[in-house]
Amino acid sequence: MKVRGWIWATSWAVVGLWAFVTLLVALASLAALFTPTWFVRHAPSPPVMFGVWAWCVGGTDDQLCAAVGQGLGDMEAALPSSVWVMVGALYGGGGALLAVTGLSSLLMPFLPTIHARAALAHVAGNIQAAAVSLQAVALVLYPLGLGSPFARLQCGISASVYAAGSCEMGYAYMLALVATGLAAYCPVLARLITYKDYSDYWSNLNYM
Questions:
Q1: What does the DSSP 8-state code read for residue 156?
Q2: In sequence order, what are the residues at sequence separation of 6 or more whose Cβ sits closer than 8 angstroms to the Cβ of residue 85?
Q3: What would the pLDDT profile of 35-90 be if each residue is shown by its tens digit?
Q4: Which residue of 75, 118, 123, 128 could cross-link 186, Cys pair, CB 3.0 to 4.6 Å?
Q5: Torsion region of 156: left, alpha or beta (phi above 0 gives left; psi -120 to 50 gives alpha)
Q6: How far apart are CA 40 and CA 171, in angstroms?
Q7: C-alpha distances out from residue 103 to 24, 52, 111, Å
Q8: Could you tell me the pTM of the whole model?
């Protein structure tokens, strides 16, 4: 008697977890990208904070913001680091790819066959791996800009590459690090969406 060993099956629990984590890290990545608190200087007053594309001066009640490199009030601003332009493109591109794959994960219940679901998970997982790589490179490159004229103007002359001077890491940069770390699990989850189900094999053995 020939017994079939296994069949392909879909783990809907993994599908749900994969979709949730992907959409969560995509939103967190884009929120971090557009929040100008990657590095913060609390003293001397007024406080200064800056991110990839914008910087702000003042507290919550009297805060003014502008694009990095533009002056605010009586405070001048030097040209930003060209590295940050690259960081914005890389990190933003990675976040956009995660958002696209997160939305595509919502199509899983509507795909008619296990092979279609496996193909979508495989392609999306590869895209997510590329997105995580882009974001990781961006996070490593961003501190290079601390040696730029803009960063030295805001953080003091002691600021240099990978040295923040009188500035310190802000919560948006920490959020970007956490989001990228969690995003690294998305390609792994994508590989676990389909699996080999041996339940029929063991059931048939019981009748032999």
A1: -
A2: none
A3: 999 999 988 778 889 999 888 888 777 788 888 777 776 666 666 778 888 999 99
A4: 128
A5: left
A6: 9
A7: 11, 26, 14
A8: 0.85
